[in-house]
């Protein structure tokens, strides 16, 4: 059947090999199942924001490889690029930095609610709730027709995201009172750990980590932003739903779970048995595998080759706890075994596999890891929300295959 599908695609002038392969898979799934479980591989929008080549392990934002952006750009530059399509000049970059640092303050009506939240509430649920609460100070947010105003609204929201985290973490609405910050990344790190934010080397690493997370095509949380935004819901409703989606362990929540897993394994010698047990129970190993990449995730490669050596080497300028060094050794062993056992199936470490070790070195508690993913990804989510409006997308409304009972009557 695949050959027949290929012939049909050629007749329709679809001749590029990769597209032919993807479309053939979609059409055979349709014949085979009649629906698309998890929308796997289904194109749902046209977008110009980011692109992935999952076979070659390439990720670009607006055409620039993510490694180049991490090596050369600030958070503000990448934010401007994602929101507008082009890198800013010096003045535009400074202007965005000024706006982000000016709008970081959150209204006391919101901070009062945050400081009264149950301390057991996971920081990701605080964050999505906090984002919704911010709508209260923006009574024009339901008018989404003006893109210039939308961009300004997005910038104000991005500015406040770390503040929500800082208020909840310290239980103090004035935790940053009187402090000056050189960059948005430094402020974001301050909200998570004051001490680390005073170390420029750590701020640089943190900034690169945020950039690596900034966008990733139509993943689960970005799909949520697009789906919710397509009903013309506000940016607050759309981003809150994305944060909730990201919290799941099969998505961004994996970074927190990876550290738990490494702690559970304890020493490298236990890694093989742990992996074999998980596999025999049909359970997933956290931090491995990806829907799109069938090779090493380029963000994972960047962590491994560029960022981790800056922390875990003898000449590094920070104090690294020996227990963290041990976790790093466990991670290296898990990676080696996973590559041997699962690499041939296209399962490799993903972005979440390594990021937790870096955040732990910054003294950040693991239940805050996924909020940091959100601090990076909010740039991409916002760009997708804006693009959805720009493209006048129709409301998302897929369909189901109904398998329930025929019409019946209540018999009393
Ligand atoms: N550990 C062991 N086996 C795995 C893993 C894993 N982490 N991931 C996939 N596989 C295996 C599956 O068991 C399956 O094997 P089978 O064909 O023999 O049944 C095969 O690979 C395909 O797996 P699917 O679950 O169908 O792949 P899918 O594309 O649906 O899922 C996902 C991708 C959700 C990321 C999955 O790999 C996973 O759950 N990984 C662990 C959680 C994780 O790290 N999530 C973060 C992803 S990155 C991000 O979202 C930021």
TrEMBL record:
Coiled coil: none annotated. InterPro entries: Citrate_synth-like_lrg_a-sub, Citrate_synth-like_sm_a-sub, Citrate_synthase, Citrate_synthase_bac-typ, Citrate_synthase_sf. Transmembrane segments: none annotated. GO terms for molecular function: citrate synthase activity. Pathway: Carbohydrate metabolism; tricarboxylic acid cycle. Gene3D superfamilies: Citrate Synthase, domain 1 (1.10.580.10), Cytochrome P450-Terp, domain 2 (1.10.230.10). The keyword Transferase applies. Keywords: Transferase. It catalyses: oxaloacetate + acetyl-CoA + H2O = citrate + CoA + H(+). Belongs to the citrate synthase family. This is Citrate synthase.
